[in-house]
Write a structure and sequence with these properties.
Elements lengths: L2 H4 L4 H18 L6 H18 L3 H13 L4 H9 L9 H10 L7 H14 L13 H8 L5
Helix pairs in contact: 2-3, 2-4, 3-5, 4-5, 5-7, 6-7
Length: about 150
């Protein structure tokens, strides 16, 4: 299917296709022999996420792949940029991201993309009570001009 055909899917079919793309990327993230297929799936997932958004479960799965950092930097960044929420975002996803900032596993550009995502998604969080306790962490990283 072309990407234009995929955008004409019903929501249920789109969800199924999104889940297939995420699953393929998760299963093959460390396999260099499937790099081309991974890139194709990331490109398709990005288009679908832009059009339909990702459910909270899908956001969590994509975040797990990004935070594991088994993909090369460019693919990891593209995947991080595909984190377009469809509904409310669980607060724990933002906290999970903040817990990975500053670790050498993630490249600085990926950390910047994820920090930007936390700031942008703030108004979509299902709760703010725990995240408010971490404002110091957020502002610590904002001082580094990562955004």
């Amino acid at each position: 299917r072309t990407s234009e055909e995929q955008l004409d899917l019903s929501n249920a079919t789109a969800d199924h296709t999104i889940n297939e793309k995420i699953e393929f990327i998760k299963e093959n993230a460390g396999d260099r022999s499937k790099k081309s297929d991974i890139k194709t799936n990331i490109a398709a997932l990005t288009k679908l996420a832009e059009w339909y958004g990702l459910s909270s479960t899908q956001l969590e799965e994509v975040l797990d792949v990004v935070l594991d950092s088994k993909l090369d930097e460019a693919d990891n960044n593209k995947l991080a940029k595909s984190l377009v929420p469809r509904d409310k975002v669980p607060e724990m996803l933002a906290i999970h991201v903040l817990g990975h900032l500053g670790q050498s596993v993630l490249k600085f550009t990926t950390q910047a993309i994820l920090l930007r995502w936390v700031v942008i998604a703030y108004n979509l969080l299902d709760n703010h009570s725990k995240l408010q306790l971490l404002y110091g962490v957020v502002f610590h990283y904002l001082e580094y001009n990562l955004l």
